[in-house]
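Continuing the batch. This is chain 6 of the set; chains 1 through 5 are on the previous pages. Same settings as before, nothing changed between runs. Recording input and output for traceability.
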Amino acid sequence: MIFIFQFTRIPGTLIGSAIGDAMGAPFEGSENIAHIPNRMIGGGPFQARRGEYTDDTLQTIALAETLVTCRGFSTIDFLSRLVKMFRMHPEYFGRTSSTVLLKIIEGIPPEKATERSGRTNGAVMRGSPIGIFYRPDQVLLMSRIASETTHGHPVAVACSGVVNQMISILCRGGSRQEAFFTALESCEVDEVRRRIALLGGVPLIPSIDALDTTHAAITCFMECGTFKEMILRAISLGGDTDTTAAICGALGGAYHGLQGIPGEWIADLEGAQRLLMLEEEVWNAGQR
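Output for chain 6:
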């Protein structure tokens, strides 16, 4: 398959993801969210500051820094960054990543430490730099390699690949429909392909399961017109709000660009300038 895109870059992927993360964090674990403020607020399970993002974005930054430093994905470099982060803030990590990182700390080789039974959403939430860096014809392979550092279940791997391929196409000027249908066509896991294809035709379940989260995030992206609408819808689902909104925000940022993201949300976000610069570094170091 040959991809031809226009290369117009107005960064929005990483900052879109971080905004979704920071907007959703105060509502994590909630149900029936009737009102979401138009500006960021603090609070939530980790008592986050207003505009502070969670481990979803911290792991995304670690992956982006690996790609820039190594000029491509390096398992050893990325895991070393995750281990350092885990030692400082173990409470940030989900059960799958925690299990893997504890094994690595104990000296188990990375290729034997990965969890192949758990299908949680950790690899999907952090994967957007892979989509920025790699072209659509390379992104599925690299998504699998990056995902399997911690999440080796075929569903988790496939979900990461679908989201990252959509981001890769969107970053390179592809349309929303082109990104969606190309990613579906390329997905080799029937369960993932069939569920995501239904979009809002079936209930959205904002759990920590990789497919539940991916289906919900992509549906909000595909069915909402503006970046603001898609983030508010993702959060309104409740459950794992920071992760669903972070994945949706990465897709929305890749599609709408910086100019499509509410300026007040960018102003509220801690470290916004750093994320903008980091995305440019990933893009400049990556494949065209």
